Amino acid sequence: MCDQTFLAVVFGPCDKCSKEKPLRAVYIKSEQLSYCSLCVEMMATEGLHENETLASLKTEAESLKGKLEEERAKLHDVELHQVAERVEALGQFVMKTRRTLKGHGNKVLCMDWCKDKRRIVSSSQDGKVIVWDSFTTNKEHAVTMPCTWVMACAYAPSGCAIACGGLDNKCSVYPLTFDKNENMAAKKKSVAMHTNYLSACSFTNSDMQILTASGDGTCALWDVESGQLLQSFHGHGADVLCLDLAPSETGNTFVSGGCDKKAMVWDMRSGQCIQSFETHDSDINSVRYYPSGDAFASGSDDATCRLYDLRADREVAIYSKESIIFGASSVDFSLSGRLLFAGYNDYTINVWDVLKGSRVSILFGHENRVSTLRVSPDGTAFCSGSWDHTLRIWA
Amino acid sequence: MAQAPADPGSAEAADPEESSPNMIVYRKMICEQPVALSCFSRDLSSLDKYADEIEDIITRMQDDKTGGVPIRTVKSFLSKIPSVVTGADIVQWLMKNLSIEDPGEAIHLGSLIAAQGYVFPISDHVLTLKDDGTFYRFQAPYFWPSNCWEPENTDYAIYLCKRTMQNKARLELADYEAENLARLQRAFARKWEFIFMQAEAQVKIDRKKDKTERKILDSQERAFWDVHRPVPGCVNTTEMDIRKCRRMKNPQKVKKSVYGVTEESQPQSPVHMPSQPVRKTTKEDFRKQITFLNLQIDRHCLKMSKVAESLIAYTEQYVEYDPFITPAEPSNPWISDDAALWDIEMSKEPSQQRVKRWGFSMDEVLKDPVGRDQFLRFLESEFSSENLRFWLAVQDLKKQPLQDVTTRVEEIWQEFLAPGAQSAINLDSHSYEKTSQNVKDPGRYTYEDAQEHIYKLMKSDSYARFLRSNAYQDLLLAKKKGKSLASKRLTGLMQSS
Questions:
Q1: How far is B372 from chain A (nearest CA, A)?
Q2: Where does residue B461 fall: left (phi above 0), alpha (psi -120 to 50 degrees), or beta otherwise?
Q3: Which controlled-vocabulary keywords does the entry list (chain A) (predicted)?
Q4: Which of A367, B9, B346, B398 is the most buried (most CB within 10 A)?
Q5: Cβ contact A61–B290 (<8 Å)
């Protein structure tokens, strides 16, 4: 009898699709697996992707980062403050508290101006949201949220509604009614739903859309009427703490800052991140566009404020001092963009010359951290809110 | 071990042997509590950024080798006050070493450092810094805030109880402390015996210590409690921003007792939310990053010099409109308490300054309702307003609630783009094709492409004509209606130039 060679075929569940089929031995990264013939064919055609290991992709990303830095460095021919030497120095500033708004029972966390240049909305740790005519210091509306730590509030462009949220993970819209008999809370509309605290919210140029930022690491755009999610923005690696809409009439972009030390610029239409900046050493608490929309400033726990230009795609100025060691919680520009007002956790407000990089003034007055700061729509004053339960209008 | 520190700065130092206890005491305390310190290794998280900075400052301040503050023992009436420094010395040191020009700023910073508990006045519960001969002492590293203390009320009760057992006038309870003690006695009525025993044990331990050492330790312990149980009305610097809480290095807040009391398990504080699981970077993440980076590398960027010029030019153009730099006319309402400025802005008559701004860019005209209105009226007078009206309609579309979008898209199509439309706008065939496709799936961005097109067209055509128009020029030169012949000629001249 001659020898007969048999091909032993194993029959059993495929390691990939689990179907009971005749199996073939396959070697993937020195590991032996048994695939059915269909899965072997599919794997063979997937081809190139399998060659990319985590490590090789990481290396590629690193080398691209290096190349990007090189390219950017080529354009770094001068510093902003050097060119600004020819600009006339600013005179002495006399900025004082012109109004003090008392009425919150706990830390003031956020505030926003109405387009009428005098009304503001403010929110606090104890859940209270108050609308003031800050010119007269009268309280016009008040509502108590069902949660504490209302970290975000915003005024609608029409002046007819406000939005707020915080530890409830939501952003709710309250129409402002002047009917004394009506309870504001009755008409409340829940718009945004996140899976963690709401850190910031802003109406777009309409009462009908709201942009939110959350501790869940995402930003989102919502339709107010229906509460529907219009677009979500993923990319931050940690809590998003702040956002600001670009000031253009045709603009469809916004910038956000987070605990991952990154500031990211987003396209509102596509949800894509257009530009990203990572030079801070710590959480970015506040971002605000330069009035032309070509740049933005950020304030961070690393005790510095920085200016980033979108056209140069890099950081162009740092505002810091050896004696400033507490984090900057909130920043905003004066109307011309020449001054940057920054509120800090050391209870002070520092005023910076944006072009020259020097500090112009330091304002004392608050008795606890400054948590929020916004310049009024016509630039005649700015408002600061603090953990000392008060808001101050400075001019 | 006992080194007489070279202390060139202190002119009135007691003889070297007497100044050395200061050093021994500090070193001893650091050695005595090694376990406590090693549990909490130096943290580089963002939350401790300022704490790290302060600790660096404090360490440098005490370093006599590199020009630290003079720490000395001061002879008082019947006794000696060990290991103190004056407020003025601290203020001076801060000004010199942190480049602070204004003493007010140095005092403010020093007060914050004191409020955090790193340095304290020896004769006051209120933690603030004064620029005078008031004596201050440095806090022991064991008690530093960076050790994540969250002392329980039982510890505080033990402390207050212990104080009442010590028959020293200087250790008498302040009013608010006596009130606190009374409250705690009520709250812990059932376990007061235990607390009393602990307090007695602490008193025994304290008695064994050297007299000078005890003075120092007592004051440091008191300062610790001044931070964690502050005088009513003072800022509690241990309060945290809730957004940053859960990322603290001790999220479970293992509560260690100041006096070694083992506590039954505490319910987890509602303030500490579970932190998010850290996602590992996947292959997909890297692929996205690579795509993004490639896009960035291809991006055309401007040189810094150009960018700087642009930023400077913008601020220079707008500086006259910035009330913080150029005082507002007639007055800044916040300063004068007169709302005249706002009343003027509300009126239909725009000021020259406001009209001038419309000439800076088309965005300025479109942003200002009065400017927009003027622009529209001018174009209507030339029967060429369809472009602007289309642009405004699309802006309006984007502001609509979702449910109204489809209807509006259709309306805009009918009015501006459909064959035979009433206000037909002029789009090139490519844009028109694209837009007609978009209309089949109506959304807020259906007309985005067309709008961009029309915007560019208006900028180069309609807007330029508007700026040259009589209507605009008249407003700019603040001419009233019913001009004289002379001014009409002037306008003619300007138009032709």
A1: 12
A2: alpha
A3: Coiled coil, Repeat, Transducer, WD repeat
A4: B398
A5: yes
pLDDT at site B484 = 45
- Which one of B315, B320, B360, B452 would you mutate to disrupt binding with A, by most A Cβ within 10 Å of its Cβ? B315
CA distance B332 to B338: 8
B389 burial class (0-12, 13-18, 19+ CB within 10 angstroms)?
middle
CA atoms within 13 A on the CB side of B313: 8
Give CA–CA dist A155/A165, Å, rounded. Answer: 13
Mean pLDDT, 10 residues at a time, over chain A (395 residues)? 63 83 77 81 64 84 93 94 96 95 98 97 97 97 95 97 97 89 85 97 95 97 96 96 93 94 97 96 97 98 97 97 97 98 98 98 97 98 98 98
Q: Choose among A249, A309, A346: nearest Cβ to B307.
A: A309
Q: What whole-number distance in Å separates Cα of residue A32 and Cα of residue B66? A: 66
Check A290 against B100: CB less than 8 A apart. Answer: no
Compute the count of residue pairs across chains A and B with CB atoms less than 8 Å apart: 256
Cβ contact (<8 Å) for B108 and A346? yes
CA distance A313 to A365: 37
Write the CA distances from A87 to A84, A352, A361, B258, B312, integer angstroms: 5, 15, 18, 58, 8
pTM of the model: 0.87
Question: Is the CB of B99 less than 8 angstroms away from the CB of A322?
Answer: yes
Per-residue confidence (pLDDT) for residue B410, from 0 to 100: 95
Pairwise CA distance, residues B2 & A226, whole Å = 75
Question: Which ipTM value was assigned to this complex?
Answer: 0.86
Task: Using the Cα atoms of residue A243, residue A137, residue A176 and residue A144 in order, give the sign of their dihedral.
Answer: positive
Name the DSSP letter for residue B454: H
Q: For A338, which residue in chain B has the nearest alpha carbon?
A: B315
Residue type present at position B162: K
Predicted local confidence at residue B116, as pLDDT? 95
Residues of B in contact with A241 (CB under 8 A): 243
d(CA A364, CA A343): 10
Q: Quick one: which of A81, A346, A358, A184 has its CA closest to B311?
A: A81
The residue among A119, A283, A284, A360 with the most chain B CBs within 10 A of its CB, best to mutate, is A283
CA distance B472 to chain A (A): 21
Chain B contact set for A226 (CB, 8 A): 401-403
B62: left (phi over 0), alpha (psi -120 to 50) or beta: alpha
Place of tokens 């009436």: B77
CA atoms within 13 A on the CB side of A257: 27
**The dihedral of CA B235, B239, B241, B244: what is its sign?**
positive
Give the domains, in start order, of chain A with CATH numbers: 4-64 (no CATH), 93-394 (2.130.10.10)
- Indicate the residue of B105, B292, B312 with minimum beta-carbon distance to A87: B312
What residues of chain B score a pLDDT lower than 70?
1-48, 167-171, 246-255, 263-280, 480-497
* pLDDT tens-digit map of A293-339: 999 999 999 999 999 999 999 999 999 999 999 999 999 999 999 99
Q: What is the pLDDT of residue B19?
A: 35
Q: Mind giving me the DSSP string for B396-423?
A: HHHTS-HHHHHHHHHHHIIIIISTT-TT
Nearest to B46 among A77, A84, A282 (CB): A282
Which residue's entry shows tokens 């919150």? A104
> How far is the alpha carbon of B98 from chain A, nearest alpha carbon, in Å?
5
Instruction: Give me the residue from B112, B305, B328 closest to A83, CB to CB.
Output: B305
Chain B nearest CA to A177, separation (Å): 21
| Site from B243, B299, B344 to mutate, A interface, most A CB atoms within 10 angstroms | B243
**How much is the pLDDT for A268?**
96
